[in-house]
Write a structure and sequence with these properties.
single chain, alpha/beta, Rossmann fold, eight-stranded mixed beta sheet, 7 helices, 8 strands, 27% helix, globular
Length: 237
């Protein structure tokens, strides 16, 4: 695995800083690389009208990659991050929330986040748990840090049939002191989980894998998966 070549790993203690993202990620966040890897995928899906109007960016960080997507009158983005500032604009809501608490109705932080989101989308709180609203979910560089099944499963329930999940992840990359014991350790775990949740993989790429390497279990992965049940052709990239 070429982890160390493409990211500067962090193995020390968390650094206290005024910027909350700096405290969690320091200089290893690599936003430029994330943008470079995801922009071609976004552009391809946009050209085929497969991004949609409501986008959720999980683990969005200080510079959400979903800002690469064009602004449109009907388009809204919800950026979820444990260090978000709870701010926003008419087309973007930033929600400070621990993604592992998704779906936990008894947790105060979840109820607060849900209220913010319903207000932003101008929908009835009572209906949000029963309605599949989301066109696209983007998950970049967080699956090592969370119970990935709980996070992906909880958010994926709100994806429309035919909607998409876009993942960028490199197993074992980052600050291992903060890793979850239930984080993604093998890309093949993700494939089987998506199948169980009725997603079909449309596209996967290993942009840093050497040509002679066949094992994809711990490689840097860019993946697009579509939720079954909706209309629309499979993406070709």
């Amino acid at each position: 695995m070429l982890n160390w070549l493409f990211y500067r790993p962090t193995t020390g203690q968390q650094v206290k800083a005024a910027n909350p993202w700096q405290e969690y990620w320091g200089e290893t966040y690599a936003p430029e690389l994330k943008r470079a890897l995801l922009k071609p995928v976004f552009d391809k899906l946009e050209s085929e009208d497969k991004i949609g109007s409501l986008i959720v960016d999980i683990g969005s960080g200080a510079s959400p990659v979903t800002r690469l997507l064009a602004s449109k009158p009907e388009r809204k983005r919800i950026c979820v991050d444990i260090a978000a500032d709870n701010g926003g604009t008419p087309d973007e809501l930033r929600v400070r929330f621990d993604a592992e608490k998704v779906g936990q109705a008894g947790v105060l932080s979840f109820r607060k986040a849900l209220l913010k989101i319903c207000g932003f989308l101008e929908i009835d709180l009572k209906s949000v748990g029963e309605v599949e609203l989301v066109d696209t979910i983007v998950v970049s560089d967080i699956l090592n840090y969370v119970d990935f099944r709980k996070v992906l499963g909880g958010f994926a329930e709100h994806v429309k049939p035919g909607g998409r999940l876009i993942v960028l992840n490199l197993p074992y990359r980052g600050n291992r002191l903060l890793f979850s014991g239930r984080g993604l350790k093998d890309n093949r775990e993700l494939y089987s989980f998506l199948e169980e949740r009725h997603f079909e993989i449309e596209y996967k790429n290993f942009p840093k894998r050497s040509r002679n390497v066949k094992d994809e279990s711990e490689e840097l992965l860019v993946l697009v998966a579509r939720k079954r049940g909706g209309s629309g052709a499979t993406a070709r990239m």
